Amino acid sequence: MEDEALVAIDLAYELEKAGAAVTFATTLAEALAIAEIEPHHSAAVLDINLRGEEVYPAAEILAENGVPFLFCTGHGRREELTPRFPEAPVLAKPVLGRQLVKELQKLLC
Questions:
Q1: Where are the beta strands (DSSP E) in the chain?
Q2: Does the N terminus or the C terminus of the chain have fewer Cβ atoms within 10 A?
C-alpha cells in the first residue's frame, strides 16, 4: 500500500521479479477494502501515510487476520511509528527493491 505511483511501480517490479502477486492501495479506504475483502494475502507492505491518512486501521485488520506485514515509510523512526505493532519491521524510504524482497522473505519464513 503506497500512495506515490513511481515508488509503488518500482517496488512492485522487484516484488513481481521475486514471484509475488502485487495489489495496490493508494488511499486508506482502498487499503481497508483490500484488508477486509481479501484477507488471504501472504504478506503486506504498508506505507504509514496514504494521502494524509495513517494506515494503522488496515494494519489492525491484517494483524487480526494473521497476515504478516512490514512498514515501508519515510515518516519517523520505528520507536515513533509502531507502538501498536512492535513485531512489524520498519524499512525507511528510500528502500531498494531487493531489500524489501529480503525483508518480506523473512516475514514469510
A1: 44-46, 49-50, 53-54, 69-73, 90-92
A2: C
Specify the range with the lowest mean pLDDT, choosing from 18-22, 37-41, 105-109: 37-41
Which is it for strands 44-46 and 90-92: parallel, antiparallel or unpaired?
unpaired
d(CA 76, CA 86): 15
| Contact assessment for residue 101 and residue 70, using Cβ atoms and an 8 Å cutoff | no
Q: Which three cell numbers stand for residue 29?
A: 479506504
From CA 48, how far away is CA 33, in angstroms rounded?
16
Using only C-alpha atoms, the chain has a radius of gyration, in whole angstroms, of 12
Contact 1, 58 (CB under 8 A): yes
